[in-house]
Design brief:
- The protein is mainly α and about 90 residues long.
- Helices cover about 20% and strands about 0% of the residues.
Length: about 90
């Protein structure tokens, strides 16, 4: 009985270690002709000249005022909303 337990334990250990194979991933090299990493940033350029201040443009002319409307005839219209409907259950 001792031998059978020892033999079963040895076979189980061998069986479990045989399944533990690491996966090897081969990363292909980058194809030739591709640009490399970006270089350092260059120096900042000088600031350009400001535009002339005296040339702001002309103001447009004022539009004409509309004519006065006619006086009302004295009637008042009152709009009454419809009665609220009963809630539906």
């Amino acid at each position: 009985m001792k031998r059978s337990i020892l033999l079963a334990a040895a076979l189980a250990a061998l069986g479990l270690t045989a399944c533990d194979k690491p996966t090897v991933v081969n990363v292909p090299p980058p194809p030739a002709g591709l640009p490399g990493p970006a270089g350092a940033t260059g120096a900042t350029g000088s600031q350009g000249n400001t535009g002339s201040q005296g040339n702001t443009g002309d103001t447009g002319s004022t539009g004409s005022t509309g004519s006065t409307g006619k006086a009302g005839d004295g009637t008042t219209v009152i709009v009454v909303p419809p009665p609220a409907s009963a809630p539906s259950n």
